[in-house]
Design brief:
Blueprint: E1 7-11, H1 18-28, E2 32-34, E3 37-39, E4 53-55, H2 58-66, E5 70-76, E6 80-85, H3 86-94, E7 98-102, H4 105-114, E8 119-124, H5 128-138, H6 143-157, E9 165-168, H7 172-183
Parallel strand pairs: 1-7, 1-8, 2-7, 3-4, 8-9
Antiparallel strand pairs: 3-6, 5-6
Helix pairs in contact: 1-7
Length: 184
């Protein structure tokens, strides 16, 4: 029997481009399996249930967490819950696939506890000003939500040293190629 594949966890601050890098990998690296998280937040324009996230109610999420069906979960930005369905991750790893989780810092810390053999990669912005520009530029959060996310981002940036590798997202293609290279 072959050794199961090694999980790679990608985390970083809000608006750093985790979703954009993950989407690029999904579109250009079919050998990489990308986990789909469950969340209680409302879909953003263009997001599709089951493709971008599993959009669930608070009650559904609580039931999944209580049943041990989530590899990790957290309340993010003091608002919505996000979590990674455990069974799909374990199945991808058992199949020997290159498996990628794109999650927040709290989730990465939980995965480090439950799967310490995983590879942890921090996606960093080129600068603080660029991070602010990206967050404001996407126009999906209110000014109050932007302030909350930037406060969280300051804390998250300080945690980069907890990770096995840091990739600066100054160019989506380059960052994605570097990540897949680390995974291979």
């Amino acid at each position: 029997m072959s050794t199961p594949a090694r999980l790679t966890v990608l985390a970083g601050p809000t608006a750093v481009g985790k979703g954009t890098v993950a989407a690029y990998i999904k579109a250009n690296y079919p050998q990489v399996w990308l986990s789909v998280s469950a969340t209680t937040r409302r879909p953003r324009p263009g997001e599709v249930h089951g493709e971008h996230y599993y959009f669930v109610s608070d009650a559904e999420f609580e039931a999944m967490a209580a049943a041990g069906e989530l590899l990790e979960w957290a309340v993010v930005h003091g608002r919505a819950k996000y979590g990674t369905p455990r069974k799909a991750v374990e199945q991808a790893l058992d199949e020997g696939r290159l498996a990628l989780l794109e999650i927040d810092l709290q989730g990465a810390r939980q995965v480090r506890t439950s799967m310490p053999q995983a590879r942890f990669v921090f996606l960093a912005p080129p600068s603080w000003d660029e991070l602010i520009s990206r967050l404001i530029g996407r126009g999906t959060e209110s000014a109050q939500e932007q302030r909350a996310r930037l406060h969280t981002a300051e804390i998250e940036l300080a945690a980069a040293s907890e990770f096995d590798a840091v990739i600066v997202n100054d160019d989506v293609r380059r960052a994605a190629d570097e990540l897949v290279s680390l995974m291979s």
